[in-house]
Amino acid sequence: MSKNTGKITGIAGNMMTVAVDGNIMQNEIGYAITGEERLKAEVVKIQGDKAFMQVFESTKGLKIGDPVEFADEMLSVELGPGILGMVYDGLQNPLNELAKEHGFFLKRGAIIEALDRKRQWAFEPLAKVGDVLQAADKIGMVKEGIFDHPIFLPFHFMGDYEITWVKEAGQYTVDSTIAKARDNQGEEHEIKMYFNWPVKIAIKNYRDKKVPTEPLVTQTRIIDTFFPIAKGGTYCIPGPFGAGKTVLQQVTSRFARADIVIIAACGERAGEVVETLREFPEITDPRTGRSLMERTIIICNTSSMPVAARESSVYTAVTLGEYYRQMGLDVLLLADSTSRWAQAMRELSGRLEEIPGEEAFPAYLESRIAQFYERAGLVELNDGKEGSLTIGGTVSPAGGNFEEPVTQSTLKVVGAFHGLSRERSNARRFPAIHPLDSWSKYTSFINNDIIKKAHNFLSRGNEVHQMMMVVGEDGTSIDDFVVYLKSEFLDNVFLQQNSFDEVDGATSPERQEYVFNKIRKILDAEFSFSDKKDARDFFNNLRSKFIDLNYIDMESDKFKIQEDEINNLIKGKVKHAESL
Amino acid sequence: MQKVYNKILSVSGNVITVKATDVAYEELAEITTRRGKSLAQVIKLDNDLVSLQVFAGSQGIATDDEVRFLGNPMRVTFSDDMLGRVFNGSGVPRDKGPELADSLIEIAGPSVNPAKRIIPENMIRTNIPMIDVFNSLVRSQKLPIFSVSGEPYNELLARIAMQAEVDTIILGGIGLKYDEYMYFKNELEKGGALDRTVFFMHTASDPIVEGLMVPDLSLAVAEKFALAGKDVLVLLTDMTNFADSLKEIAITMEQVPSNRGYPGDLYSQLAARYEKAVDFEGAGSVTLLAVTTMPGDDVTHPVPDNTGYITEGQFYLKNGRIEPFGSLSRLKQQVNSKTRADHRAIMDGMIQLYAEFKETEEKKSMGFRMNEWDQKMLKYGEMFESGMMSLEVNIPLEQALDRGWEILADCFKPEETGLKSDLIKQFWPKDK
Predict the structure, then answer these.
(1) How far is B334 from chain A (nearest CA, A)?
(2) Which candidate from B256, B259, B325 shows the least CB-CB separation from A398?
(3) ipTM for this prediction
(4) Can you tell me the distance from the alpha carbon of A91 to that of A111, in angstroms, rounded to the nearest whole number?
(5) Mean pLDDT score, B238-267
(6) A103 inside domain
């Protein structure tokens, strides 16, 4: 089929209008040609024979009348072995390979295949000639790092396919034909180890979507205990700048107990991606003994990279997530920041001269956000295995005010809300997740009643604190004052966590349970204090000992010694020692 | 072949339109009016209608004035001869020195491949404790100074420029008052730094559009110096003026405004500039400090707000001091573990206590009786403000850390500080 062409008739920013000869489709890819360069663009609106296209590159130097070639396909990614450990831009161009070829700068119009065409994979056939398969059934298997990576019958194949030929086991590249299959019409298709899938279409080759219940452990105490996330669930982290969104995401990407972590750096600082990019290959994942990078994919479209590619980067990331979920793995997608993605939509909408909604965001903002988070989920695959895709998105609300369209649209669709507060980050209480504003619909591995009780302490402590601000410490009863001290204690030694410390940075569920139990008993205990100063001194002392404990490896002897010290301290003040 | 047109169809704000063909997006044109010549840049193409933004402003443009397309985008000269020279917002010398027209480079080039960046790890010492101890400045960092008008932000900028160890300084002034420009020039001259400085000066009396180019010109030149192995410090003042110029053009072009009249792409526009800060693998670096004045001391105003999301922290200048709350260096963790064992602990501990002091101060102002603990807090707050926060303090990092311990020991018992015991054992002043 001959491909369509067109000519540029207008340019404003990253939007061009193109007069087209022939038929085109919405979201079709086209290339604007200027000199040697081919600039990738996507159709976002069609009006008569005029196509509005967003260009994924700088439009500098384009002229009226420059030719545009259409590709007759939607914006797609390559799905196959070799994605893990890669660093891609928003359109799945491998950045390391681009750097090798073009040096320091991102050369305009440079495109490199997402999957290495030279790398060999050890292929083991699973299907036999005569087998009748459907989309997402396994034809064979390769080993990608520590994972078994099935070679699927491509997801877009509709109906039954009879395998007519399968290649024997051996080392092959991704573009070698490993099987042939005949469809209902009798037409034979060649199957390679990879196929293309349009990013804006969700992959739905599974039997059933289930309700997420099992917690996804992040090893951040305040999250796992108080505001847990679930495998296949969704959550969001809104917060003003400087409140620690990105550090929290980085810590999660490092310590979360998921099989695969996809980091979508969407319109954020390049420097932050660089940290991940340079450090992950050096860090060993304690669960697998391999480099963390082997379970990580980075989609990196930082703030100075073209804005249209930013819009597609989150779709690229979620599509890759869905692909690995199809293998029965637990995938965690961290998108930082969804506000930048929303802003990209706003810029596009403005260029299309659409009628603006609130704060000039397009009217379809809410449904786009909902569609994106809906791609998360715990699914039962066709072979009965379960796979999950969890999505956590940061939101960067203008002025730190949560009453803005992106935060509000997100809160409607997510299962947990980790609201970061300026107040807590100013006081260096990290992670700055606000314990009274945040919520989660998922359940923790710690008993819910116990958590509720502890949470209650926090709100009562806060009330006393507010009261003290009005009536002063003198006007507060010692009982109330102790409640306040206890809530501060809980905040200081459990909710706060030093992400940069080797031990304190990640707390295993076992340790969380153990420590939390200890704290719970202190919260419940009755103490005999002579006066407020006595109480304050005691809790200052206790806090300091407990913080030291947080920095000690649980397996070491020092832990036991420190624990004894704490116990002795408590015994000296508590009314009923047997309650401990 | 250069194309010349003599029919201007419309003049609106600082934007004119002409009918022309074979014009490239972002191409430059030269407009000759009876007032002289001005550069203009193509900002929109719609069939044969070309919209241009006129750098010198549209005042006095006649419909029959000559528009000549130059066939290239905005460029700037680059050579070592630029050092010590002053240029305007169009890249033309504004001192009395000779024209420089060699080795032209394009401005606003492509962004750096993130895979080619390296993790910043070199601290830039400023001898200001509020920076060195609490929010260390790091080579290749991009950092704004948030400030209310009237604060000594230019003084702070000049002091950092003088004390920071860098090879080249590029100073970009956007809407700068003439006396501020002279202040910078004199300070750098006094400090003997003039011959490693390039100025791009757009003063308040120059046409507003011309200021739009200053960040791009400054950063394009900085990037070239960095690729040549130099560590470059770029100072931009004031980026709020830059954003206001963007707003003006956007409204003239009838774009839908997003927030308080600013265009929806304000974030991307600012990011395209700030992200030029970089540490090149195997070459030099660009560090970027920019003043952002906050209208009405409002950090949620779109300009500081968008800036804060882009930059790697911010210095918040208030009442002549760098405020510990609100100020942040995101890269400090890269360097402050390598300075001294107590650096991080002092940094966090002292601020937590200072936050508590602020609360105590509030209680005091409401007339509550101050108990023993409150008295300790008040004493601490006072000592912290005079010994650490004041911009008068000019001591190296190690000395500042020692002073931190002394202040703590003067006010508290060790266990009241919330610091780790082993650090207390090591650093707590022995005589206390």
Answers:
(1) 10
(2) B259
(3) 0.85
(4) 9
(5) 89
(6) no
> Is residue A530 domain-shared with residue A427, that is, in the same domain?
no
Residue A308: which of A513, A58, A544 has the closest Cα?
Answer: A58
Q: How far is CA A494 from CA A236, A250, A276, A454, in A?
A: 22, 20, 26, 11
Dist. CA B334–CA B119, nearest whole Å? 8
* Domain at A10, CATH number: 2.40.30.20
Query: Of B206 and A208, which is predicted with more confidence?
Result: A208
Judge whether B71 is closer than 8 Å to chain A, CB to CB: no
pTM of the model: 0.91
**A420 and A472 fall within a common domain:** no
pLDDT at A1: 45
Q: Where are the alpha helices (DSSP H) in A352-380?
A: 365-374
* The Cα angle at residue A129 between residues A128 and A135, in degrees rounded to 5: 75
Torsion-angle region of B190 (φ positive above 0: left; ψ -120 to 50: alpha; else: beta): alpha
Q: What is the pLDDT of residue B164?
A: 84
Residue A198 lies in a domain: no
* Residue ranges making up the domain that contains A15: 5-73
Residues B265 and A347 sit within 8 Å (Cβ to Cβ): yes
Q: Are A231 and A271 in a shared domain?
A: yes
Residue with tokens 């917002």: B89
Angstrom distance (rounded) from CA B263 to CA A536: 52
| pLDDT of amino acid B123 | 92
| Beta bridge partners of residue B117, listed in sequence order | B280
- Are A58 and B276 an interchain contact pair (Cβ–Cβ within 8 Å)? no
Same structural domain for residues A347 and A309?
A: yes
pLDDT at residue number B254: 84
**Using the beta-carbon criterion (under 8 Å), do B114 and A474 form an inter-chain contact?**
no
Indicate whether A95 belongs to any domain.
no
Residue ranges for chain A with pLDDT beneath 50: 1
Residues A421 and A479 in one domain: no
Which residues of B are less than 8 Å from A500 in CB distance? 333, 337, 344
Burial of A556 (0-12, 13-18, 19+ CB in 10 A): exposed
Closest Cα of chain A to B182: distance in Å? 33
Nearest chain B Cα to A107, which residue? B110
Q: Which of residues 227-246 of A touch B (CB under 8 A)?
A: 240-242, 246
Asked whether residue A83 is domain-assigned, the answer is: no
Nearest CB to B48; choose among A64, A302, A360: A64
pLDDT digits (tens, 9 = 90+) for A179-215: 999 999 999 999 999 999 999 999 999 999 999 999 9
Which residues of chain A neighbour B368 with C-beta distances below 8 Å? Answer: 472-474
On whether both A186 and A242 belong to a single domain, the answer is no
Measured distance CA(A217)–CA(B193) in Å, rounded: 54
Report the residue from B117, B264, B416 with minimal CB separation from A360: B264
Confidence bin at B360 (pLDDT 50/70/90): very high
Average pLDDT of chain B, as a whole number? 91
The residue of chain B with its CA nearest to that of A471 is B368
Q: Are residues A453 and A377 in the same domain?
A: no
Indicate yes or no: CB of B117 within 8 angstroms of CB of A271.
yes
In angstroms, the CA B80 to CA A368 distance is 51
Count of domains observed in chain A: 4
Q: What percent of chain B has pLDDT over 70?
A: 99
Which domains, from first to last, does chain B contain? Answer: 3-72 (2.40.30.20), 77-332 (3.40.50.12240), 343-427 (no CATH)
Is any Cβ of chain B less than 8 angstroms from the Cβ of A406? Answer: no
Contacts of A304 in chain B (CB under 8 A): 111, 268, 271-272, 274-276
> pLDDT tens for residues B221-234?
999 999 999 999 99
Domain co-membership, A346 together with A305: yes
pLDDT tens readout for residues A246-300: 889 999 999 999 999 999 999 888 888 888 888 888 888 878 888 999 999 999 9
Segment B235-257 shows an average pLDDT of 90
